[in-house]
Amino acid sequence: MRTTPHLARSRVLKVEGMLRRPKPTDSEADLLREQELFLNSGASSKVNVVRRPDKRRGEAGGGGGGGGENSGEHGGTQRDVVTIADLPDQLPTLTPAPPKKSRFKANSVRFEEEDPEERLDRQDTHISAVLSRIIERDTSSTPVSLPPFTGTAFPKVLRLSEADGQVPLPAGKRSIFARQIAAQRLKEGKTLLHCAPKAETKGQSLPAETSMDTDQPLATTCDRKKTIFQCKIHVRPSAASGPWLVSGQGLGGPDSPAETMRIHRENEAKLQAMSESEIREEQKKLLSQLDPRLVEFVRSRKAQSVPPSTTPSKYPEDKRDQEECLPKNVDNESDSSSAAGLHQKPLEKELPVKPQKEWVHMDKLEPEKLEWTRDLPAPRRKGTKKAMQARFDFAGTLIPPTEDLPTHLGLHHHGEEPEVSISTQTFTRRHAHQQRIVHARAGEYTSVLRGNMTSTLLDAGLLFLLRFALDDSVEGVMSAAVHALRALLVSPEDEECMDSTFSWFRGLASFPLLPSSQEEEDEDNEGLEENMKETVKEKEERKTDYDVARLDVVKGLLKMKLLPRLRYILEVVRPAPRVVQDILEVLTRIARHSSSSATQVLDCPRLMETVMSEFLPTSWTMQSLPLPQSVYGLPLASAMKLLRVIATSGRHACARLLNSLGARERLSRLLSVEPSELLLEPAEALRITTEAYRLWAVAAGYGQACNLYIDLYPTLLEVLLSVHRALAPSDPLLPLQLQRVLAQLSFLTQVTHTAGCHQELQAGVVSSQGSECPPPPPVSWGHVTGLQASLLGHLKGLVKGLDNPVEKERNIALIPSYLVYLEAYYHQLSRQNCFKPVETLQELELLTSEVLLPLLSHNAVQIQSGRLGPEITASLPGLASAGWRDRPNLAALHSPFPLLIGLGLLMDTLTGIHKGLSSKFSGLLLSEPVTGYLRSCSQAVPTLSHTSAWLLRHEHHLLFLLLRLAHRLVPHEPKVAKHTSLYHQVALVLLPWLLPSSEYLAHELLSTIVFSKEEGHSGGPEAIELSELKLYEDTHHHTAPSFQTVGALLREACVQLPSIRGCFLTHLAHLEASVLVSRDAYLGRNPWINSQLLPELTGPTLPSDWPFLPLVSLYERMGVSNGGGLQVEELPQGALQAVTHCLQWLLLLEVWREDALKVVLPVAKLARLSCVFLCSSDLFLERPVQKLSWGLLRLLTRPSRLDSLDLDVPPPGLASFQDLYSALLAQYEAVSFGDRLFGCWVLLPLQRRYSSTLRLAVFGEHVGMLRSLGVTLEQLPVPLERFTSPPEDSLPLLRLYFRSLVTGTLKRCWCPVLYVVALSHLNTFIFSQDAAAQEVEAARRSMLRKIHYLTDEVLRSHLLLFRLPQQRSELGFDTYEQLPPIRAKRLESVLGARDSSDGKGD
């Protein structure tokens, strides 16, 4: 018996006649016997197995299995078909449920002759069966028509009037769109449309019942009287059309219609004969008799019966006539319904358009919506100077507010001022990509629009929309998004400014463009242990994209995976040249953000590889067109600039660019030949070689790529020899040539610094013996000495050419870089073993006489200051350099700033080597421009932001160099010594200005100038006596004994200046690491420099209140206890001496350099000096601290200073002054021992002009301190009138005054000052005649009554007889001998009222 095929194969069963089948009772022997009989009989098998080919496996149909008739019938193909006779078609049901009926079974017809294979083939839906029947049509000869390209953003609008004019189609109803397409195909000649003959007139093509009777003459039989009546009772306006209300149904008879018309005509004639007043009277009578609901029903029927196609021209009545016909005595319901009926059919001239029947959805008129179809009014000119909303057309161009723009050229709206077009801010979320492109131009108008447009757009979500648009599949949208992103992030003028200052001293370094750090409240970590708190990285990861982008735009873009998308666009999309330039500029701006951002750009997979291979290739071909269609395969200056900015972020990034990415080979390829031989456009060749030199300078600033200098040394010599030829005044590319020469000089300066460190590093490697030490660079001092003579000759020629007007501007731009190079050369020369002092001194004298002195005497050296623009956006900082070329600016092309810095650097180095040259440069300090500039700087107030820091850094260099020169000249030049106080003042002002990376300058100022005895004061002991006399005259009304010793304190402080300097340098020791890093950068120790990116701009190097630093440091070291006061501990060793030196320095500044501390608020001074009392329990009792503190208190309480002391302003570092004062009160109660100095300090904030909260704290929470607050009126440094005037108006405080006096808590013998203050305010309060609230008046009467019954006669007389405070009297106030009549009358009235109330009570 044949085995059954595999289960996966299809089977088809067919029942035929068959012999005896095996039974279950048959044994094995029976089965074998039956089989043998079957084989001997030779009969054919009743079951055939046909193998069907598996099309999924690609098998062909044929071969194998079962012969017989089936094999012959089907050509011998093996089929997987099993046919069994007498086998039912359906399986028997296993459940008694009725069989299911199929709705499709009746439609299924089967034939006995049908081949099962063919049926299977028809039902097989496999993909192979479908694909096997696909036949591709030949379309090679079919014309392809592309849609036309237009400059408009929106497709042309199809108007219904145009659609109606299309050729009608005979076959049924077609949509408007189908008719338009058919007409377009007919126009193009693609298809032939057989159209019906066009109707002659529009009216004839319509059915009779729908024809619009617009040409029929209007009925003129009804005059104005009839019109009035019609508008109320709704009589049909035309008599020929029949009546509305009279139907004739009840008349009966064959001629009832004629009778109806006769009645209608009689009504018409009767109305015609009535006057207007009669009509109105009948109308009122009729409406008063009828049911209002019936009237409303009739009117509604009339409104429904009016066909919507009826034109308004059949109602010639105007609106004024309708208003006159309204009844005056009808109820509100009738009026409202009548008005509704009127407005359902507006007049023709009220509608801006005439509705046509074929218009879609116009069966019901809506006049308020049709109003928007009227013509727009002309734009109104507003008489205001306020900023108005910016408006754009479809091309993205800014539209003036008064321009009348047609509706098809602008996006108008249905709000206020519909006549003015406006574009919404959803720039990139338009459905049509043309709209998204033109709306993405918003970033171009940042400099045109008023207000901070960037912040507004960022708040509206522009950043996310641009990021979404970058993922768009349409290249045009993607390109527009890139362009808008570049306009948002990149400021071309900022980049130009930083490029122009690259050749300045330390110009290759720059601040990271990080937003100002904003401290956020850490609510989630409150109350948690340190090991449980989230780290900074975890917090950053938990933030959403919006939270990150709100604070930092660049960081938000990096979080949104911008870099991989830009890589994809560059690598896969390969966009147009402009898009490539925009992407490279965006990457440059991201690299300027921070070192971490630059690292992310460098680490992005295949991004930098794509830039290097596509836009900085090592070989390329000459382009035939000036503007190539693609920049792929060509070197780009913007790509080289990207490498330079990335290299600035750190030496490791620079090494990766040079060694791993092939930047070294690119430098060699671009700089080994002249720009004219690079097969590039001349301007682009100059730009890319300039950027190559700048990248080389940055690398040399780390001591890298110096072996390339040895390889290209001959080329560099040829370039230097051809400088004058390349800088011809007639060259149209002169600005680019100048930038290239300046970049070469910057590179040579850095190579000179690196070569100067070779000797020190070589010796360090020998002595280090395996410890960490940078390896010596491959270039040594001998490699760079040959360039000095050539460059010095160039400089002499440039100085001589200053008198030539043609060459003056060019020479002024070049001279500073030559001066910086010479400074580097002579600075490093003095540190070499080959240094020859005698020859070098002679060379320096010759340089001074031939170059420096002529340059100093030239009018090109002058001082000018510039003004910078405001910060643009907090989350997207920039330099705000818009328009820097058009206004006087420190970075302008004609600015003398780089020239002065170069001169100062070279003079500082020369005078350090040759001391005798100092006197020759005194003319610079004594010149009027320099003196005036220093005076203006001494009065300036520093501000810190990205808009000013990038230039302030260079200005600080200049001021430091001028002060260094003055410090060397003061001991030897009497004329310069006259301005000693000015120089010292400028040094004190400059010190808190210095920015991060200027720690070395701060250390030098503190070590030399700030604490110098020669510059600390001028005039000797006579000046001290004059200062003492001046202070005494200012405070002659005070007789505190300690004030007489100010002169002695000043003398002692001057003697202690070296110790004071040591004290402050010790407290600034935490800046040592920063000072060393800054020193390496300023002294050109390139192998030790790790990054040319300056520290984050978080604040100045030193705080503005740095003179208080020892006091604040001691306060922080002692710590705060849980009770709010300070822990009472033993002072650290040297703390008393440090506090004494700090107070001495503050006393010197307050006497001689008062303006140096003007940046510190008076309330901040008071808070910092309060640390004397809070640091320890007995520090303020030390004699030197007592003397100095008394002197400072007298200086701070002078009348001019008291007026500027505002305690409502919170001191820096504190939430409010109230918190500090509470700690002072607690400390006074605990450890003061009634000290008069501490008492004066506590009394100072209790003046009347300050908040009553401070006084409530004394008389409420700390009332016990009144017993020990024994400051006398003579010791009080503040006039008593400041405590008593104006009268107190705080009722709770007055009650506390009264309670403390009555209970004996406040006595004159314990607290004289506050005793007088309380008496004064209470006396004024109880005898006040001013009108007041009931509560206040009741308090007055109650206090006066209680005072009258006091048993303490002294206190009673003081309260009743108090006259005026008198600080110099014995009591501190004057009294009346007896009660004045007005007070007696007041007292009598209060007591009489009390007696009368008591009598009534009895």
Automatic annotation (TrEMBL):
GO term, biological process aspect, one: transcription by RNA polymerase II
InterPro entries named in the record: RPAP1/Rba50, RPAP1_C, RPAP1_N, TPR_RPAP1/MINIYO-like
Keywords of this entry: Nucleus, Transcription
Compartmental location: Nucleus
Main localization, broad class: nucleus
Organism: Myripristis murdjan (pinecone soldierfish)
Gly residues: bias regions: 60-75
Acidic residues bias locations: 518-529
RPAP1/MINIYO-like TPR repeats domain mapped to chain residues: 1107-1333
Residues in RPAP1 N-terminal domain copies: 262-303
Cited Pfam families: RPAP1_C (PF08620), RPAP1_N (PF08621), TPR_RPAP1 (PF25766)
Domain RPAP1 C-terminal: 389-419
Basic and acidic residues: compositionally biased ranges: 315-326, 345-355, 530-539
Keyword check for NAD: no
Region ranges (Disordered): 48-77, 89-122, 299-355, 516-539
The protein's name: RNA polymerase II associated protein 1
UniProt record similarity statement: Belongs to the RPAP1 family.
Gene: RPAP1
